[in-house]
Amino acid sequence: ESKGKRRNPLHDFKKTGELMLIKINKTLEVKTKLLNTTEQCAKRCSRNKGLSFTCKAFAYDRVTKRCHWLSFNSLTNGVRKKQDHAFDLYEKKDYVRNCIIGKGADYKGTISVTKSGIQCQAWNSMIPHEH
């Protein structure tokens, strides 16, 4: 009798080693807490547990074992990247991928033009097409 293995929460994240994100825009939110593993950080980020914002990424400080949950990612305006040997950056794939899978219902990326370069219609607009 085999016990089912749980899915590793890190599979939903893109890892970039030795990188931290610095917020220039003061309205962007960050929350930190001591946690022993990156898996624990990923699980809380995925569930937004105890966070007042949608977690788009987290940075894990390997030295202090501190998790920094971020309301932003490397593609967000008002953010800059900083090389830091103590940190590993984990960004939710849904927010950094530039492709649409299936019908795109879960797409959260930043592409706003068609393959031929035409600007996409805003979701709140019914012109030129109805949704």
UniProtKB/TrEMBL annotation:
CDD domains per UniProt: PAN_AP_HGF
Molecular function GO labels: endopeptidase activity; signaling receptor binding
SUPFAM superfamilies reported in the protein's UniProt record: Hairpin loop containing domain-like, Kringle-like
Entry-linked Pfam families: Kringle, PAN_1
Keyword Acetylation: no
InterPro entries the record matches: Kringle (IPR000001), Kringle-like (IPR013806), Kringle_sf (IPR038178), Pan_app (IPR003609), Serine_protease_kringle (IPR050759)
Record-annotated Apple domain positions: 8-94
GO annotation, cellular component aspect: extracellular space
Kringle domain: residues covered: 98-131
Keywords: Disulfide bond, Kringle
Record bears the keyword Disulfide bond: yes
PANTHER family referenced in this protein's UniProt entry, alphabetically: KRINGLE DOMAIN-CONTAINING PROTEIN (PTHR24261:SF7), PLASMINOGEN-RELATED (PTHR24261)
Name of the protein: HGF factor
UniProt organism field: Atrichornis clamosus
Gene this protein is translated from: Hgf
